[in-house]
Amino acid sequence: GCSVLVQPFFFERKDWIPVPNWSPNIVKGQTYDTESAEGSWLWNDVQQRMKDNALLDLVAEPVAEYAGPRYGELFLARSRLGQGAFRVLVSEAYGKRCAITGESTLPVLEAAHIKPYELEGPHKITNGMLLRSDFHKLFDAGLVTVTPELRVRVSDRIQEQYFNGKAYYRLHDQPLAVIPKLDSQRPDPEFLRWHLTERFVG
């Protein structure tokens, strides 16, 4: 998980405190117990510098609650023509099931473009797949792809960057769970090849 710092403050360089037993290899989680001699010394040093820098009042203030507007200004957005029809046609072609997992819980299924619409990818069934929302995000990010042979590939980056991904790696090199019955509705190998070479970061 992540740690969120609320109202952080920073001493001037001249007031920096040499921190005992601190390794540059520490990623997170290092703490000092103020009940220990080392932690007590460090905390006293911090408090003294805070007094000298008039910081005690600042950090003692409660975190202010945002009281501004709840919404920003209205603006016009250009909608994608044909997006609704694309979603319906792709959903029907895949029997309302995720192409990769076979998941059939409709609220989490999304019609994904293989070649993105903003890069001239067409609203065609052959340029689409029905994917569970997490796979859709991974697919768009290039962390998952589907080969022209309709097999799933999962990028090593998931493990390297997020130290996880077991649920995804078990599907690596597996065939698609769902393929449209009609050849004319199956993913176009050219679009899949584009995604594999231009978007996938394997």
Count of helix runs:
7
The biggest beta sheet reads: 2 strands, antiparallel
Please tally the β strands and state the result. Answer: 4
Rg measurement, Å = 26 Å
Total domains, how many?
2
Low-confidence stretches: none
Strand content: 5-15%
Overall pLDDT score: 86
- Span between N and C termini? 25 Å
Trace the largest sheet across and list its strands: 1-2
Helical content stands at 25-40%
Q: Assign the structural class, choosing from mainly alpha, mainly beta, alpha/beta, alpha+beta, or little secondary structure.
A: alpha+beta
Order of helices and strands: HHHEEHEEHHH
Shape: elongated
List keywords for this structure.
two-stranded antiparallel ribbon; 7 helices; elongated; 4 strands; 2 domains; 202 residues; alpha+beta; 8% strand
What does this entry look like structurally?
The protein has 202 residues and is an alpha+beta fold. It folds into two domains: 19-60, no CATH class; 83-199, no CATH class. It is 30% helix and 8% strand. The strands form two sheets. It has a two-stranded antiparallel ribbon with strand order 1-2. It has a two-stranded antiparallel ribbon with strand order 3-4. A hairpin with a 5-residue loop joins strand 3 and strand 4. The longest helix is centred in the N-terminal third of the chain and has 16 residues, at 37-52. The protein starts with 36 loop residues before the first helix and ends with a helix.
